[in-house]
Write a structure and sequence with these properties.
Blueprint: E1 4-7, E2 10-15, H1 26-31, E3 40-46, H2 50-53, H3 65-73, E4 79-83, E5 89-90, E6 97-99, E7 115-121, E8 127-133, E9 138-146, H4 149-160, E10 168-178, H5 180-196, E11 199-202, E12 208-211, H6 215-220, H7 225-235
Parallel strand pairs: 2-3, 3-4, 4-6, 9-10, 10-11, 10-12
Antiparallel strand pairs: 1-2, 5-6, 7-8
Length: 237
């Protein structure tokens, strides 16, 4: 696209996708013909960059970082604002190519979402990027090893420290061995926290939490006769 003048000294260059799978790099097409004019040019584009994808960069729409940095070095463009990644990401070594990421987290596995970038650029080689967090939501992964009541209490303390629970999602990975009594306390805790958190999920496929009765649990069964003898025998296996 043709540069759009937004002031006597600043131009915007748009490189938007017009459909989901472009057959070539729209950004490369936009910056390829540009030459230095003395004006500050900000490029706004979308798509993956080969330097970020690594070996997964065979899509024709992939942005080639070398082309972008050559245009920067030649003074044709001065900053490239990219969309596609949800995590704030600096691309390359120039300090002038960035994904701002999403203003709010959208998944548990995002590295650094929830930011905006404040960028200062001039025509004399200066470019300063400041990351500012604005997210109101948070998604937290938490792992806990539980072997006694104190560990359940520690997990409760973790929940207590969370701020703004209605805008917080938590994903737990739990491991260890608990008695029946302590496991019941854990279940009560999780049920209580589900009422206040936006989301609470225990990752069953990654958790390894075993429930094993202790002497107190066995006594609470109130068994007698043959059943008690069988239980005692099983206890010592």
């Amino acid at each position: 696209s043709q540069p759009l003048s937004v002031s006597p000294s600043v131009e915007l260059v748009g490189a938007a996708w017009t459909h989901k799978r472009p057959s070539r790099s729209v950004l490369s097409d936009a910056i390829g013909p540009l030459e230095a004019t003395g004006k500050i040019r900000i490029v706004v584009g979308h798509g993956p960059v080969d330097a970020v994808l690594g070996s997964l960069n065979d899509e024709p729409s992939t942005i080639r970082l070398a082309e972008v940095e050559a245009a920067i070095a030649g003074g044709a463009i001065h900053y490239v604002a990219l969309g596609d990644r949800h995590s704030t990401t600096r691309v390359g070594e120039s300090g002038r190519v960035w994904y701002a990421g999403t203003p709010e987290p959208t998944r548990f596995d995002e590295v650094d979402p929830g930011n905006v970038l404040i960028v200062e650029v001039d025509g004399h080689g200066h470019c300063e990027v400041e990351k500012v967090r604005i997210a109101q939501w948070q998604f937290i992964n938490h792992e806990a090893t539980l072997t006694e009541a104190d560990d359940v209490a520690a997990l409760k303390h973790f929940f207590t420290q969370l701020e703004d629970k209605p805008r917080t999602g938590v994903r737990l990975v739990l491991s260890g061995t608990l008695t029946v009594r302590d496991h019941a306390a854990l279940e009560d805790l999780l049920e209580s926290e589900r009422q206040s958190l936006a989301a609470l999920e225990v990752m069953r496929d990654r958790s390894d939490l075993v429930v094993r009765p202790d002497d107190f649990d066995f006594e609470s069964f109130g068994l007698g006769g043959f059943a008690r003898s069988a239980l005692l025998e099983l206890q010592h296996l």
